[in-house]
Design brief:
With 149 residues, the chain is mostly helical. The protein has 4 helices and no strands. α2 packs antiparallel against α3 and α3 runs antiparallel to α4.
């Protein structure tokens, strides 16, 4: 008994695999809807999936960059604390510790600002991909809804 690739991997009630774009196109063709350009519909869905994949890639890379920078900041901060503790002896230790604490607070504010900017940039890059595809879809819909001459 021959079964399709999708049917072999799914049950009718609980599918475990999503149909491919090719399967989607075949399904639409079987419905034989008059005036429906199956190729254009499949292409439209393919572009949507590509946009979502690109948005996910952008988000993932942004999160990686953010995590890497946080690690760098943590290593730098620990090194600065170690240096400050080594120099914390002597007659002017209190003034050195106060200066180190002030520098540390300013550095923490600067680091927080940098991380917030990295996070916002990652979010904006990912959202832009989705937004561009939504705009493309709206233009396609407007074109499809134009009266035929």
């Amino acid at each position: 008994m021959a079964t399709s690739k999708t049917a072999a991997n799914t049950s009718p009630l609980f599918p475990t695999a999503l149909p491919s774009m090719e399967d989607f196109g075949k399904l639409i063709e079987q419905l034989k809807l008059p005036g429906v350009d199956v190729g254009a519909l499949v292409e439209w869905q393919r572009k949507d999936m590509e946009a979502l994949a690109e948005a996910n890639r952008q988000a993932y890379e942004g999160i990686q960059s953010l995590a890497q920078r946080r690690g760098e900041i943590l290593r730098d901060t620990l090194a600065q604390w170690q240096d400050a503790l080594k120099d914390a002896t002597g007659t002017d230790a209190l003034s050195q510790q106060t200066e180190a604490a002030q520098r540390g607070v300013q550095q923490a504010v600067d680091n927080f600002r940098e991380l917030a900017q990295l996070e916002a940039q990652a979010r904006n890059n990912s959202w832009k991909v989705v937004q561009d595809r939504l705009n493309e879809n709206m233009a396609n819909l407007q074109q499809l809804l134009q009266p035929k001459k």
